[in-house]
Specification:
There is one protein chain. By secondary structure, this protein is mainly beta. The chain contains one helix and nine strands, in the order αβββββββββ. The protein has one domain. It has a nine-stranded antiparallel beta sheet, with helices on one face. The longest helix has 9 residues, at 26-34. It starts with 25 loop residues before the first helix and ends with a strand.
Length: 134
């Protein structure tokens, strides 16, 4: 089992938390979009609410946790973009608020994805949606 020290589990159907690993707030999504710090990662393992991400070159790993099962958008081997500073994962047009344990290491020159991005919030899912991929 992966370990992300996820002590905050949602015990109700309508989670209202914006803490790391829960719902994506529009201000959070805006901060991710404004800061060009999305870096590539590979999903090494998906176990329910937990993911193991690996750096595609160095192999360094980081664990992430989300309050919902993420197998609707992620499977082993998927390429994602990770924003470590803002605890968010961008995958397949969605921006997901995650709780991050560990780091993929120092940023390499040219590694950061620097692209204009804008997100709207899907209130029903608590995730950001990339308006460029709509």
């Amino acid at each position: 089992m992966l370990t992300t020290s996820s002590s905050t589990l949602c015990t109700h159907d309508q989670c209202a938390s914006y803490l790391p690993g829960h719902l994506m707030h529009f201000i959070h999504a805006d901060l991710v979009a404004r800061e060009p710090a999305l870096r590539p990662a590979i999903v090494s393992r998906v176990e329910g609410r937990e993911l193991l991400l690996s750096h595609p070159i160095t192999g360094a790993t980081a664990h992430v946790w989300h309050h919902e099962v993420l197998d609707d958008v992620l499977v082993d081997g998927h390429e994602v973009l990770l924003h470590e500073g803002r605890h968010a994962v961008a995958v397949r047009g969605q921006l997901i608020n995650v709780r991050l344990t560990g780091t993929l290491g120092p940023l390499e020159v040219g590694e950061v994805e620097n692209r204009p991005t804008a997100y709207v919030i899907d209130i029903a899912r608590g995730r950001g949606l990339d308006v460029r991929e709509g």
